[in-house]
Every structure is written in C-alpha cells, then in structure tokens.
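Open question from group meeting: does this chain pack into something compact, or does most of it stay loose? Before anyone orders reagents, we agreed to write out a predicted structure and look at it together. Recording both the input and the output here so the notebook holds the full record.
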Amino acid sequence: MSLRTSLSLSALALAAVLAGCSSPVVLDEAKTPTTAPVVTAQPGTGGSTGNTARPNPTPQSQVPTVDLAKQQAEREAAARAAAANLPRVLYFEYDSFLLRADDKPVLEGHAKLLAAQPSLRMSLEGHADERGGREYNLALGQKRAEAVARALELLGVKPNQVEPVSFGEERPAEAASTEAAWAKNRRVELKGR
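Structure tokens returned:
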C-alpha cells in the first residue's frame, strides 16, 4: 500500500470517528420546546401524573429594551461637551512637522468626538511662518496637517472624517516678524465642517 493511500485511509477513519462523536446539542433556541414533561407524585399513590407545563421564565413584556438612538445621542452629547473646552490649534517647532507630546490629550479628545459622531467632518489647516520660500512653506503646512490626520486616524478616526490642507504662510495668525509671532504661525487649526 502506498503512503498516499495510507494517508487517505487514515483521514477517512479520523473523519468517521469525529462524525460518530458529534453532539446532539440543539443550537437553534427557536426550535426548543417551551414546555417539558414534569413528573409529579400523586398523594398516596407513589405514581406520576404526567405532563405539566413549565412557566415561561421571562415574558416578552418584561425583557428590557435598548434604545440605541438614545444611547448614540448621549454619547455624541458627552463627546461634544468634552471637546468644547479642547484647544483647536496645535503648534509646531521651527521647520518641523512632528507633533509635541503635550498635544496627545488634545488629539485624543478630538478623536473621541469624531468617533462618537461618524457624520462629523474636520478640516485640518496647516500653516507655516514667513521664513522659507512660498512652495516650501506650503509643503511644510501640508506635512503638519497630514501628521495631525495620521495621529487622529491612529486614535480611531475614519480617514474620510478629516481633510488635511495647507495654507503655508498665506494666513498668519500674527503679522509681525518676531519669534513670538512666528511661533503662533507654525500651527494646524482643527475646524469642523
């Protein structure tokens, strides 16, 4: 007998053994009878009377109902309330698009808001200070906005809920040419749409 034939016969034997060990457990609750015979003794006879119906353990009218729309509305209201006090601007270091560690709670708060309201959309507007060329600053603003978008997506926000865009140096928060003004211009603004 060849090895292939021997393996085939072994597989068939194993399948037959497993089929013989199958359990007669009822998997469909709807087909389970609601009454079952109960054996009771007659006083003084020592015999049984036969079938007695078991009461239904939980009538349909007593099953608690869950209002999913109400729960969703409550989650959305809680997320809006929590996000109301969150900053809507994230700042960056000079010539960088790396998020700062202290921005994590802000990002988490906005992510919770967006996750609780799947229809909500947010525009992530990247900006740069006036130093550097126009094209370079547009690209830097875009990288900053995309960094925020990636962070929000990692926190559970759907990609279609955020749109990263760049304004480069075109929309400064402060028009002065000072270090304090430049620091305020290196930012991403989170705006709801």
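Observations to bring back to the group:
Residues 14-34 have pLDDT under 50 and may be disordered.
The chain has five helices and four strands.
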